[in-house]
Amino acid sequence: MRITSLRQTSPGRITVCLEDGGEIRSTLGAVTELRLFAGRELDEEAVAALRTESARSLGRERALEYVSRRQLSRRELTDKLREKGFDEDIAVWCADWVTERGLLDEERYAAAVVRHYSAKGYGALRLRQELQRRGIPRELADAALEERPRDTGKLDRLVAAKLTDPEDRDAVRKLSAALCRRGFSSEEIRAALERARASYDYED
């Protein structure tokens, strides 16, 4: 198979045109690495290598774009790449590539998620849900949750802001349900309510 032309479509992007009318979207880096030029003959193995290297190069550029914007988990990154049309093998290869270079760190990302949602007043159950939603592996999620700050004061302040009378059963039920939705366990909620009752200034 002969290369009929190399057409630059944008800075750093090259389309390799083949004599059978086929085209392979590639990058300047891949074309340079494979030493391609118009008129070069490629056997089937070389064409397959060109397709693979081109997909990897394009995927790598896209992966770098994504991880430069914000922290991601491997699953989030591979999902984004697949949404852009890259197949599973290329998406996984790109995730490995950025991870090996320290550009994707799931442990650091898990810790950041826990800090963020803890500061917003969410409990451990909600934190775990957020970690799972982002595709953080179980062992990293467990480690991040183990390191989360144990600040009962934040929960106490939530209770104090919402509960004017600890003996109002309807208000306690509604507050308990709201705190449960925020990811606090029944034990945490019960303890916070007990502290609220103990500090409540009952009138004579």
Could you give a short description of this structure?
The protein is mainly α and 204 residues long. It is built from ten helices and three strands, in the order βββαααααααααα.
Describe this structure in words.
The chain is built from 10 helices and 3 strands, in the order βββαααααααααα. The chain folds into 3 domains: 98 residues, Arc Repressor Mutant, subunit A (Orthogonal Bundle), CATH 1.10.10.10; 41 residues, Arc Repressor Mutant, subunit A (Orthogonal Bundle); 48 residues. Helix content is 62%, strand content 9%. The model has no long low-confidence stretch (mean pLDDT 87). Helix 3 packs across helix 4. The longest helix is centred in the N-terminal third of the chain and has 26 residues. The chain has a 3-stranded antiparallel beta sheet with strand order 1-2-3. By secondary structure, it is mainly α.
Kindly state the number of beta strands. Answer: 3
- Compressed to H and E, one letter per element, the order equals EEEHHHHHHHHHH
**Low-confidence spans: pLDDT under 50, at least 5 residues?**
none
Tally of individual domains:
3
List the helices and strands and how they pair.
Elements: E1 3-10, E2 13-18, E3 23-27, H1 28-33, H2 44-69, H3 74-83, H4 88-100, H5 106-119, H6 124-133, H7 138-146, H8 152-162, H9 169-181, H10 186-199
Descriptive keywords:
204 residues, mainly alpha, Arc Repressor Mutant, subunit A, 3-stranded antiparallel sheet, 10 helices, 3 strands, 62% helix, 9% strand
